[in-house]
Design brief:
FAD/NAD(P)-binding domain; five-stranded parallel beta sheet; 25% strand; 27 strands; 435 residues; alpha/beta; 32% helix; 3 domains
């Protein structure tokens, strides 16, 4: 029986394991194993809500062991530490609890086909002080850590007199991409809710100062300019301070220093600028490392195969060039499309058949501005070129993206039940996480 091992339980990796489990694992045609260093999955586009406290992880997170049981694949807890291509084995690091006690020992796992979908991490470009003094919003653990510090800072701010012309608490966000823009709006909304739960001196315009810093000439630089302008307009309505064309060259415990000489004070700093694949991918394979680029991404061909034909990679950790010479962007919709491509392509490639190369089809972009608005552009079969949307329609489309992810993992019945439980949940739980 073919052993297919998928490393990385993000949106793409988990969807691939789920679909292959249904198609191959259920029929005994292959043994599907998913490997991840965490026990649960949280949809990455929700991390800004988790950081702001407006999202309940327990209602959303998916248990890998349960998902595996329901969808005919296996789950192994562990972090990928090494790869022996000759013997086709993975080395998984030992896992430990918070007290340092060993949960699982270091172990080896054999494969016939390996799929690497370990995602990406925030790239601070080696900026002085960024590693020590910022939180990088690239995992549920980091988002939770930011939320803890935010609540603690709000409690602390209650006892600190506000200086003239400045907020008691300043949150600086480095990076004006989708994550930075969405977090800024979500924090503003959360501050309004916090005032109703005892933080009566944390006013989003007077006591909480939100600063967004972007090195490019405009926000959302990778997206259409009209979308960028609309997002900037909405943020300014919320009195969020936006600095573009400002490159951060140093981060200290209480400030950001710019190449222009400008200094911005900060009580809490989030780094949300730039992404790269994990450094360990550069040496994966030991004496026979797989080919990577300058961002540590594994270089793959049109079938998403690395320089080793039995090893595939997709999502943010892979560099895939399109027939027109462009590169597949590191976006959630690209990872989902690649996962669905591999669901059909893997069995055929294993049989030695020829499969058409993967082609990314841009369906547009959506950016959520919390409860205030959403902006986006739709592309594809519905329109020629792009179609700009904002307001309630964009908010509904953003919600629909989340539902599409739930459908891929749980089907119609479970998604309907989850949606119903979300509606009920809103009637009794606090609108913001306070612990």
């Amino acid at each position: 029986m073919q052993r297919i091992v998928i490393v990385g339980g993000g949106a793409g990796g988990l969807a691939l394991a789920t679909q292959l489990g249904k198609r191959l694992g259920k029929k005994g045609l292959a043994e599907i194993t998913l490997v991840d260093a965490a026990r649960t999955h949280v949809w990455k586009p929700l991390l800004h809500q988790l950081a702001a406290g407006s999202f309940d992880t327990h209602a959303e997170e998916i248990e890998y062991l349960a998902q595996a049981r329901w969808n005919h694949f296996k789950f192994r807890l562990g972090r990928l530490e090494g790869l022996d291509r000759a013997s086709k084995t993975l080395q998984l690091a030992a896992s430990h609890d918070e007290a340092g006690r060993e949960i699982t020992p270091a172990q080896e796992l054999g494969y016939d086909t390996l799929v690497i979908a370990v995602g990406s991490q925030t790239n601070d470009f080696g900026t002085l002080g960024a590693a020590e003094h910022t939180i990088k919003l690239d995992s549920p653990q980091a988002a939770k850590r930011f939320n803890d510090r935010l609540i603690n800072a709000c409690i602390r701010a209650q006892t600190v007199p506000r200086s003239a012309g400045s907020g008691r608490l300043t949150v600086a966000i480095v990076g004006g991409g989708a994550t930075g823009v969405e977090l800024a709006a979500e924090l503003h909304a959360s501050a309004r809710v916090l005032a109703n739960y005892g933080f009566d001196h944390i006013h989003p315009e007077k006591d909480l100062q939100i600063v967004l810093v972007e090195a490019a000439p405009r926000l959302l630089a990778q997206l259409p300019e009209r979308l960028s302008e609309s997002a900037l307009r909405e943020l300014r309505k919320l009195a969020i301070e936006v600095h573009t064309n400002e490159k951060v060259i140093e981060v200290t415990e209480g400030s950001l220093k710019m190449a222009s000489g400008k200094v911005i004070s900060s009580s809490l700093t989030v780094w949300a600028a730039g992404v790269k694949a994990g450094d360990f991918l550069k040496t994966l394979g030991g004496a026979q490392p797989l080919e990577t680029n300058r961002l540590n991404q594994l270089v793959v061909n049109g079938n998403l195969q690395t320089t080793d034909a039995s090893i595939y990679a997709f999502g943010d950790c892979a560099a895939c060039q399109q027939p027109d010479g462009t590169w597949v962007p590191p976006r959630a919709q690209a990872a989902y499309q690649q996962a669905m491509y591999l669901v059909k392509a893997l069995p055929r490639l294993q049989r030695g058949e020829t499969v058409s190369p993967f082609v990314f089809r841009d369906q547009g972009s959506l950016v959520s501005l919390s409860e205030y608005s959403s902006v986006g552009s739709l592309m594809g079969s519905l329109t020629k070129g792009s179609f700009f949307i904002e307001g309630q329609l964009a908010k509904v489309m953003y919600w629909a993206l989340h539902k599409q992810h739930q459908l891929a993992l749980g089907g119609w019945k479970k998604t309907a039940l989850i949606t119903l439980s979300e509606m009920i949940d809103r009637t009794y739980r606090p609108r913001i996480k306070l612990h």
